[in-house]
Amino acid sequence: MILSSMQKIKPAYLLGIILALAGFTHLWNATGFPDVFFDEGVYLARAMNVLDGLGPQVGYFHDHPFFGQIFLAASLGLTGFPNSLHPSMNQDSIALLYLVPRILMGLLAVLDTFLVYLIADTKYGKKIALVASLLFAVMPITWVLRSILLDSILLPFFLSSIFLALKMSNSNKYFLSLVSGIFLGLAIFTKIPVFTMIPLVAGLVYFHSGKDAKTLVLFLVPVLLIPLLWPLQAAETHQFDLWMKDVLWQTQRHSTGLPYISLLFYQMDPVLFVLGVSGMGYAILRRNYLVLFWIVPFVLFLLMIGYNQYFYWIPVLPVFCISSAILLIDILEKIRKKGTDKVIRIIVVSGIAVFGLASTIMVISTNLTNTEFAAAAYVLQNATNDTTVLASPVYSWMLNYVFHKENVPNDYSYVLFEPIKTNKVLLVADPHFLIDIPRGKQLAQIYNDSKTVATFDEDVSMYNTNGYPYSSIRLNLDGMHIEVKAK
Predict the structure, then answer these.
(1) Coil, strand, or helix at residue 384?
(2) Where's the Glycosyltransferase RgtA/B/C/D-like domain (predicted)?
(3) Taking the complete model, does pTM exceed 0.85, yes or no?
(4) What is residue 40's three-state secondary structure?
(5) To 5 degrees, how large is the angle CA 267–CA 2–CA 337?
(6) What is the reported pLDDT for 5?
(7) Could you tell me whether strands 424-429 and 481-486 are parallel, antiparallel, or unpaired per DSSP bridges?
(8) Of 4, 172, 20, which Cα lies nearest the Cα of 109?
(9) Are 345 and 6 a contacting pair, CB within 8 Å?
(10) Distance from C-alpha of 388 to C-alpha of 421, rounded to nearest angstrom
(11) 3-class DSSP state of 238
(12) Among candidate residues 239, 45, 19, the one with its CA nearest the CA of residue 116
């Protein structure tokens, strides 16, 4: 219905509908899907550390720059988080502690959708812009933007940098090149791998400014200086050697690599994956440098590093949608059979969008977090001041910063480095903990020497997790079976 009215409805109205769809797909059931991932707790703990006036650096671990926690803390602080929620030790109240930051992520995803439209409209025109933003709003893979991750936080800054570079003219090119550089610098200051986008945005700045070298310098200054705050902070606190060690450790971690996360992308969203890859091939034929410089350096970087996660695709999801839209529109424009070209265009594009939206709704309507919130409530109600709570950051951040429980390390790996100093222990043994047991004998020992006092199970047997669209559930298993063990 939306696309059948494209010739009659103003693009602004269509964009409004697309943004409304994006709001639905990213805000509906925000605390139910996806599950609460380990890293979400890490970033919330760091944000709470900032809110409590303790600074952006937590402990001595330098895995990422700290603009992410600063932005998250500032945004949550505007709502009075967490005190404005009047938190209590029950399951519903705990869910609210995750609702607020996940709403923030959803709003950022809506902004991302708008920026995808602006970029595509500026570069390729309104038809491609509408299709690209529609794909970004409704396709299943974009559920990854719902999680509280650095990649989700940096994306609007990165997209803003591209858009400003495209909008430069002779009258404003110096100002826009500087602001574009600031946005990209902040994106890199959130997560370093986005440095691979420097050639893309630098090229846009240079060529859209009439090859003015001064604009390139103005762009590069903040791009290079802002991320330097990270090692400078480490040096100022006499932790530069630890910073070097942790940065190298990040690059040397091992996982199944790029082929595996490519397979996961295909399993989660086969339509967009095939369209996007085909669009990349089409970009090579057409010498579409924006698409190629957006995707190729980033993919080469993922291929080189040892550790990859499925959500690492986030910075290139927009270009998957844009390249897909370019391919679709160009193919459909070549269909010249009288009286059928418009109908075919409507059927193809609306069919893909409806299929993607239906698949997304099926996935985001699942509830995979009940067990995590129930386990958190149980621990809160049973942890006394003489009890050490060993749990992942999914739980520890709220015990520490919201409910101010004592003897709660940042995560269970604490026992690998320090002895337990209390007589009692509560262990939250979730699937993530079980994966980490091989890290050290202390984890296995505390698990085997403790008694199970409560279990929490999420039943997903009604979903075919080996088939589309519920294959995404296989990436959200941290709440499937949780044991709370006492010693």
Answers:
(1) coil
(2) 102-221
(3) yes
(4) helix
(5) 90
(6) 47
(7) antiparallel
(8) 20
(9) no
(10) 8
(11) coil
(12) 19
Q: Residue 89 and residue 99: Cα distance in Å, rounded?
A: 16
Token readout for 330 is 């160009």
Q: How many angstroms separate the CA atoms of 341 and 333, rounded?
A: 8
Q: Take residue 155 and report the two structure tokens written for it.
A: 């994306």
For residues 313 and 318, give the distance between their C-alpha atoms in angstroms, rounded to a whole number.
10
Among 84, 87, 59, 55, which Cα is nearest to 69's? 55
Q: Strand, helix or coil at 2?
A: coil
Amino acid (one-letter) located at 352? I
Measure Cα distances from 170 to 33, 161, 174, 201, 421 in Å: 47, 18, 8, 18, 66
pLDDT tens track for 185-222: 999 999 999 999 999 999 999 999 999 999 999 999 99
SS3 183: helix
Summarised one tens digit per residue, pLDDT across range 375-428 is: 999 999 999 989 999 999 999 999 999 999 999 999 999 999 999 999 999 999
Separation between Cα atoms, residue 324 and residue 329, nearest integer Å? 9
| Kind plus residue range of the DSSP H or E element containing 413 | none
Residues in CB range of 300: below 8 A, 6 or more apart:
196
